[in-house]
Amino acid sequence: MSGIPVFTPIVKDVSAQMRRLRETQPELMTAFSQLAVTSTSEGVVGKKTREMIALGIAIACRCDDCIGFHVRTLVKLGITRAELEDVLATAVYMGGGPSMMYATHALSAFEEFSP
Predict the structure, then answer these.
(1) A single Pfam family, by name (predicted)?
(2) Torsion angle of the four alpha carbons 1, 49, 55, 4, in this order, in degrees rounded to the nearest 10
């Protein structure tokens, strides 16, 4: 991917659509928000590690929207490129060739969201 922002618009668009769903499906969105908070909060494993696991799953499941959100969060949490590459290696191991392609998307998102 080029230096043109790709993931910033994806994250903004999905966030806007989720806000719209909150208006029409408040119970669903409240439950989803609570699930997200609970599953990514600080725990025995730690917030950063939980986000790394979520990113690996997003890559293996081939979800660019999820990749954008989790990489953005990981950048805010201070992930290094070396840590990211370890996550990508495990995701590729678990997901094969298609995960390799989405691992490159995660690298692009990292470059986009990094200061």
Answers:
(1) CMD
(2) -20
Mean pLDDT of 14-40: 95
Domain residue spans of the chain = 7-113
Q: Please, what sign has the CA dihedral across residues 33, 5, 101, 98? A: positive
* 36: its two tokens: 């997200």
pLDDT digits (tens, 9 = 90+) for 63-94: 999 999 999 999 999 999 999 999 999 999 99
Give the domain 7-113 fold: AhpD-like (1.20.1290)
pLDDT digits (tens, 9 = 90+) for 5-23: 899 999 999 999 999 999 9
Of 2, 113, 15, 115, which Cα lies nearest the Cα of 65? 15
Nearest CA among 30, 33, 34, 75 for reference residue 51: 75
d(CA 4, CA 1): 8
